[in-house]
Amino acid sequence: MGLEVVVRPVVFPNIRPQQARSLPPEDDPTKGICEIKGTSSFVVQFSNSTSWSVTYGKSKEIKRRVDEVRVYQQEDDGTVNRENYVDIDIPNKLWMRGPAEPTSSIVPTEGEPEPDATRASMNRVDIEYYRPVQEAENIEVTKKNVIKRSGEEFTP
């Protein structure tokens, strides 16, 4: 006859977690509560209304003054490849025809008929200036201050 050893795990009840205990109630149940009292009982209402209205007009480009520039490929080490280049136009001045203005802002001079907004906007021209291009090792300005009108050689 052989000797056998049987090992069985035993779980004792004292290693299990205990249930959460409920706390006793506070001494004063109204402690920490704010009560607002008054003599009248009417609702206070504040009315607030905001309204915004914005109208943006679209300007149309009439003409532009550009510098025609040739930009050569430049390698990371600084060498310039003159066989690989791109020709681009860089604007330095734009003429823009303004959007229509409301007729209330146009004041007619004495003896003239009441102007309409379309005619007034046709006379308003805004001019925008841009910094001219600077020549560099890989940038060569081929033509300066070339005027191009809308609809001729470019699409704004």
Number of strands: 4
Question: Largest beta sheet, briefly?
Answer: 4 strands, antiparallel
| Global structural class | mainly beta
The total count of helices amounts to 1
Overall average residue pLDDT: 77
Question: Low-confidence stretches at least 5 residues in length (pLDDT < 50)?
Answer: none
* Computed CA radius of gyration, to the nearest angstrom: 41 Å
Q: In percent, how helical is the residue content?
A: under 10%
Overall 3D form: flat
Proportion of strand residues: 25-35%
Order of helices and strands: EEHEE
Oligomer: single chain
Strand adjacency order, main sheet: 3-2-1-4
Q: What distance lies between the first and last C-alpha atoms, to the nearest angstrom?
A: 106 Å
Quick summary of this structure?
This protein is mainly β and 156 residues long. It has one helix at residues 117-123, and strands at residues 60-74, 80-97, 125-129, 139-149.
Structure description:
The longest helix has 7 residues. This protein is mainly beta and 156 residues long. The chain contains one helix and four strands; from the N terminus they run E-E-H-E-E. The mean pLDDT is 77.
Task: Provide tags for this entry.
mainly beta; 4 strands; 156 residues; 1 helix; 4% helix; 4-stranded antiparallel beta sheet
